[in-house]
Structures are given as structure tokens and as C-alpha cells.
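Recall the central idea of this unit: under ordinary conditions, the amino acid sequence of a chain determines the structure it adopts. In this exercise we apply that idea directly, starting from the sequence alone.
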Amino acid sequence: MEQAASRSDRAWYFSLVGGLLPILLSGFLASGAADRLDFALWALVAGAAWAAALRQSFDHPRAAVRLGAPALVAALAVASFAWLAVRHQEDLRLGIQALLPVGGAP
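Accordingly, the structure predicted from this sequence is:
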């Protein structure tokens, strides 16, 4: 019995970290590159939504809901990040060029 709880706990933490790490890294790196707070706020909101959806899915007995809620949150997070990237595309481009200069350019 304790081993099953331990497996469930491990699955929870691996799923949580596996979802939060790319969200927070992409949001904070884009925020640093574009010098815009919007990306950092996106990362915090998307991370909180991921954690909430994951928690609800682990508590739900139906497999379709267990897979659907985090997938929906992930899709919404990617779509909103793309919208932010298009909105601040010039700032992102300039920030990335400043961080990763092209070799040989004058």
C-alpha cells in the first residue's frame, strides 16, 4: 500500500517538474531577451494553471479527464506564448541578436 502511494507521489512530482521546467525556462528566458515583463507573468500564470490542472487530473477517476485537462492547459499555454511572441517580436529579435550575435557580422 505504501509503495503504491510512493509511486503516485513520484508520478505527481515528475509530472509537475516536467511541465513547469519548460514553461518557466521559456518564459523567463524570453522575458530576459525581450526585456518585457509580459513573458515572466505568462510563465507564472501558465505554471499555476499547469499545477492546478495536474492536481485536478490526479484526483479524477476517469482517464479521459486525467489526460485532457493538462493537455488543454499545455495547448492554451503554447498558443498564448505564440501570441506574446508575435506581439513582441521585434523586441525578441533584438534581444536574441544581442545575446547570440551572428559570427562575422560587422
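The helical segments are 2-34, 37-59, 63-87, 89-99.
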